[in-house]
Each structure stands twice: as structure tokens, then as C-alpha cells.
Design brief:
It is built from 14 helices and no strands. With about 325 residues, the chain is mostly helical. It is flat, with a radius of gyration of 24 Å.
Length: about 325
């Protein structure tokens, strides 16, 4: 297992490297002049040239790319923000916890609400329970998170005045952003759970469990659901990355000072180091989440864990 984890960690290197080169290239060819944005429209030509030289913007593409890769991968330095002069790494670590809270709570809601809906739909296939569950899932997956967020603000903040519309002062400020971000995940989780359960629920061991007198609850939630978890775990792992992307948009709607708002400001201000650093950081986080997802497989499915152990025994015998 240790060798597997180490192998996956090494596989992250080309992924993060590719993301770094891609985002740097996109920002390099993006129209706009950061020096003009920093100094304003009244800056002279000499001032602009001096600022470009200070920021290294007058260097050719390959030179700038190699310098940036050296700074990121050899020194762990994501650069300095053009707009506030602070370290990009410090800004990211200050803001990411707010984004992570929204993504984590959204995934949790997706699991808590989506899995029971999918199980009920599978157990009562082609009944009104199934049709209602799939209709709710279809509606949930069809509505963009930012649109749901705007509807929630209009209803619960402007009309009913139950919840705050922006900010992060209290836990109540996270209620609407988390719900808006999780709606699509709930729908996806419900549909995947239903599909996985339908494949398992007619298996021979389920019939045997019922024949032994097991309660229906134990048959469904212990035997059937446990064996249907592999594709559900896959969806849960990828959903966290999707929730991170959704949280970036939701933060703009609810004015939450997280990583999403930071990236939007970076785009508007041509703050290349801020945007590049945020994208690289998110790529690393998503890669680690997918590694954790693979490790959960081994915990849920003993066959996968046994496969790793057998490979280890073979290596010991050959040695």
C-alpha cells in the first residue's frame, strides 16, 4: 500500500506540471497589460516600460516560463500579487479555508441527502417514489448553482429576511451558499446510487440474506449498499473537485472572501501570479482528494486491499 501511495504521489508531478504550463501559457497570451492596470491610464510610456521590466514582463515566453517553473517547483514560491504586494501563497492559505468549508459541507449534504434518495428510488423502482426521486434529481442537476443562489437571496434574504445575503460573520452566512452549491451534487449522487443499487439488489447474496431472515433495512443498507459503494465513492471524490469549482462561483454571488473571489479579482486586475497560484493550488488539492478516494476503495472493498497484499507477497517471495 505504501508503494502504491508513493507511486500516486509521483504521478501527481506531471499533472501539476502540465496545469502550471497550461495556465501560464493562457495568461501569457491573454490580452491586457498588468503594468497599465497597476499604474493606471495616466502613466507615461517610460513608467510602463520600467514597470514591465520590474515585473519581468519584457522577457520572452520561454525565459518567463522557466523562471516561473523554477520559482514554483524548486523554491515553493507562487509569486507576489501585483495588486496588494502580498505573497500569493499567504493569500491562498488565508482564503482557502472558507472555500473548503463550502465544498466540504456541500459534499456532505450530497451524501446525506443524495444516497437515501437513490436507495429509495432503487428499492421502489418504477413506483411514485422512484419517479419523484428522479424528477427531483433532474431538476437539481439542471439548475446552475449561481442561479439557485440568486433565488435563495431573493427569497430568504430580501423577502423573508431569515438569512444574511453576504459575508462570513456567522455560521448562518454559510447556509445558502452550501445549499446552492450542493444541489447539483445531491442530484448526481442520487442518480448514481440508484444505478449502482439496481445492479446489486437482484444479486444472489441479497436473496440469500433475505432467506436467512435478515431485516429489510439490514439487507439494503448493510449488504446491498456496501457492495454498491465503489462507483458512489468515485462520484463523491470527483464531486469535491466539482464543488470547489462551484464554490468559486458561489463566493462571487454571496461576496464570500474565499479563493473564488480572489481569482475573479485576479482576472479583472490582470493579476497573473494570483490567478496562476490559485489554479496550481487547486490542482494539487484535487489530486490529493483523488488519491484519498483511491485509498477509501481499499477500505470499502476487501478485494482491492487483498490485491495489494498479494502483490507484496509475490515481491517478497521473488526477493
Amino acid at each position: 500500500m505504501f508503494r502504491y501511495i508513493l507511486k500516486r504521489l509521483f504521478m501527481m508531478i506531471p499533472v501539476v506540471l502540465g496545469v502550471t504550463v497550461l495556465i501560464f501559457t493562457i495568461m501569457y497570451f491573454t490580452p491586457g497589460d498588468p503594468a497599465q492596470t497597476i499604474l493606471g491610464p495616466n502613466a507615461s510610456f517610460e513608467q510602463l516600460e520600467a514597470k514591465r521590466a520590474e515585473l519581468g514582463l519584457d522577457q520572452p515566453y520561454l525565459t518567463r516560463l522557466l523562471n516561473y517553473l523554477n520559482s514554483v517547483f524548486l523554491h515553493g514560491d507562487l509569486g507576489t500579487s501585483y495588486t496588494n504586494g502580498r505573497s500569493v501563497s499567504a493569500d491562498i492559505f488565508d482564503r482557502f479555508p472558507r472555500t473548503a468549508i463550502i465544498a466540504f459541507v456541500s459534499v456532505l449534504l450530497s451524501l446525506i441527502i443524495g444516497i437515501p434518495i437513490g436507495v429509495v428510488s432503487a428499492v421502489h423502482q418504477n413506483t411514485w417514489h422512484d419517479r419523484l426521486g428522479m424528477f427531483v434529481s433532474l431538476v437539481g442537476v439542471s439548475m446552475p448553482a449561481f442561479w439557485v443562489g440568486l433565488l435563495l437571496v431573493i427569497e430568504f434574504s430580501l423577502r423573508l429576511r431569515w438569512l444574511p445575503s453576504s459575508g462570513i460573520a456567522t455560521p448562518l452566512h454559510y447556509v445558502m451558499p452550501c445549499f446552492a452549491c450542493s444541489l447539483g451534487g445531491i442530484a448526481t449522487m442520487a442518480r448514481q446510487t440508484r444505478s449502482s443499487m439496481l445492479e446489486v439488489i437482484r444479486s444472489d447474496y441479497i436473496v440469500t440474506a433475505r432467506a436467512k431472515g435478515q431485516t429489510e433495512f439490514k439487507v439494503i443498507y448493510w449488504h446491498a449498499l456496501k457492495n454498491a459503494l465503489i462507483p458512489i465513492i468515485t462520484v463523491a471524490g470527483t464531486s469535491f473537485g466539482i464543488m470547489l469549482g462551484g464554490a468559486l462561483v458561489i463566493e462571487t454571488v454571496f461576496s464570500i472572501p474565499g479563493l473564488g473571489l480572489y481569482m475573479v479579482k485576479g482576472i479583472n486586475n490582470r493579476d497573473y501570479p494570483a490567478l496562476q497560484g490559485a489554479v496550481i493550488f487547486l490542482a494539487i488539492v484535487f489530486s490529493l482528494v483523488m488519491l484519498l478516494t483511491d485509498l477509501v476503495y481499499a477500505y470499502v472493498d476487501p478485494r482491492i486491499k487483498g490485491q495489494y497484499q498479494n502483490q507484496r507477497r509475490l515481491r517478497v517471495q521473488k526477493g
